[in-house]
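Blinded run. Sample ID left blank on purpose so nobody reads anything into the name before looking at the predicted structure. Input follows.
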Amino acid sequence: MHIHLSPRHLALTSAIHSHVAEKISHLEEIAPDIMAAHVVLIHDSTSKPARSHGVKVHLAVPGPDIYAEDWDADLYAAIDKVVGKLARQLRKRKTKLHDKRQQTAQRRAEIRKSRG
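Blinded prediction complete.
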C-alpha cells in the first residue's frame, strides 16, 4: 500500500511519519485490499486550542473509497481517533461484502435445489 502524507502548516518529522505509517499499516490487517492512503495533517492556529490539529484520511479501496477526519488538541490523538473511525468503516464494509457473498451463494443453492 502506498501512503501519501501532506502536512499543512506543520513540519513533518520522522516520528510523525512513522506513527502514521504504523497506524495505517494496522488497517491492512482488516482490509488487505487497500491500494493507497492519502493522509493530510493540519495545524490550525486560529481555531480553538481543543481543535488545533486535524487529520483527514482518504483510503483507496475497490468500490467506494473510504474517508474520515478528526480534530484534537494533540496531533497523535487526532491520528489515533481517525484510524479508529477508519477501522470501524472497514469492518462494516468487510461484513457487508461477506454477507452479500453468503446471500448470493444461498440463493444459488436454493435455485439448484428447486430445479433438480
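Unblinding after everyone has recorded impressions. The first helix runs from residue 14 to 30.
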